[in-house]
Amino acid sequence: MIPLILASASPRRKALLEDLGVEIRVEVSGVLESAEGSPESIAVGNAELKCRGVAQRLEGEALVIGADTIVALGDTVFGKPCDREEARAMLTSLSGNTHEVVTGITCVRVSDGAFCRGSETTRVTFRELDPGEIESFIEAVNPVDRAGAYTVDGPGSLLVAGYDGCYQNVLGLPIVRLESLLRELGDGLYPRMRPDRTRFL
User: Fold this and answer.
1) Is 154 exposed, middle or buried (0-12, 13-18, 19+ CB in 10 A)?
2) Number of neighbouring beta carbons within 10 Å of residue 192
3) How far apart are CA 69 and CA 154, in angstroms?
4) What is the pLDDT of residues 9-66, one digit of tens each?
5) DSSP class of residue 158?
6) Distance from C-alpha of 128 to C-alpha of 85, rounded to nearest angstrom
């Protein structure tokens, strides 16, 4: 099968694919991302920028996946915080509220330029968090590496009261949505799975 390239530096996206037993190569695009527009248009637009930024550097056979995840609370869009103070402000805003996590995905086949794109939205409700819990979370997790300053695995599992939608989307890569997009290009994750490499609890 042609190589599968992930145009993302996110270790969580890479891990989600590797846990399926899928062989993946990471190529970081380094493109300047946009923050203008609706949550869906931002996420899909940035995913396409990343994907095409990597695809144009490659030759021969390859299938490139670009993804971008943002957090939206009403009209406020949260990307990755620039420092701990901004992370603290984001977590305080999310406390006790329901927000949306939107991931955009773009796939490009390098050989002929065929592409498809889409998005996934999950509604996430936070518990009411006191300042001490927020500080403990910030100490336990590097919040500047995550959209909305949080993750839902590990210590992040203590933040969330409930989900409506795809859990993997909140981790940064909705696997079922990705599978449907790859199928549009005549590919897919099932044929790429290596049972001897799969990981699960």
Assistant:
1) exposed
2) 17
3) 19
4) 899 999 999 999 999 999 998 887 887 889 999 999 999 999 999 999 998 899 999 9
5) G
6) 19
**pTM for the full model?**
0.93
Nearest 5°: the CA angle 88, 93, 97 is 135
Tell me, what amino acid is at 192? Answer: R
**Parallel, antiparallel, or unpaired for β 76-78 and 63-73?**
antiparallel
CATH topology of domain 4-197: Maf protein (3.90.950)
- By residue count, the chain amounts to 201
- Residues marked as catalytic: 68
User: Long-range contact list for 21-29, CB < 8 A, 24+ apart?
Assistant: 21/192, 21/193, 21/194, 21/195, 21/196, 21/197, 21/198, 21/199, 22/189, 22/192, 22/193, 22/194, 23/192, 23/194, 23/197, 27/54, 27/57, 27/58, 27/64, 28/54, 29/53, 29/54, 29/66
Tell me the one-letter amino acid at 194. R
Please name the amino acid found at residue 159: L
Task: Give the DSSP letter of residue 147.
Answer: G
